[in-house]
Specification:
Radius of gyration: 17 Å
Structural class: mainly alpha
CATH class: Mainly Alpha
CATH architecture: Up-down Bundle
Number of domains: 1
Number of strands: 0
Distance between the termini: 21 Å
């Protein structure tokens, strides 16, 4: 876990993220039940796709917030932290694209 301050999570966004992640958690439990009950493979795959899209939406939202807050503030301040934040964001985008 990073030692950086994440003040943007203290506002309404935090509650929204938690709500969305709890919904995704429920989808994962539903998928487990579907497998346990040996439901039709295509139905399971459809639910996997829905869960994947939900996780991607959370990821994109977090990335947008990170760019709009952390990276923007670091860029305004300049110096080595700005370069570090840009590299960090670039690496995160690369991981999302590969996933």
């Amino acid at each position: 876990m990073s030692e950086h301050q994440h003040s943007y999570l203290a506002n309404k966004s935090k509650d929204d993220y938690l709500k969305r992640l709890r919904r995704i958690e429920g989808q994962a439990r539903g998928l487990q039940r579907m497998v346990e009950e040996e439901q039709y493979c295509i139905d399971i795959l459809t639910q996997v796709s829905a869960m994947t899209k939900a996780l991607q939406a959370v990821s994109l939202s977090l990335l947008e917030e990170h760019l709009g807050h952390c990276v923007l503030e670091a860029a305004r301040a300049g110096g080595p932290e700005a370069a570090d934040k840009l590299k960090e964001a670039s690496d995160a985008i690369a991981r999302l694209v590969r996933s």
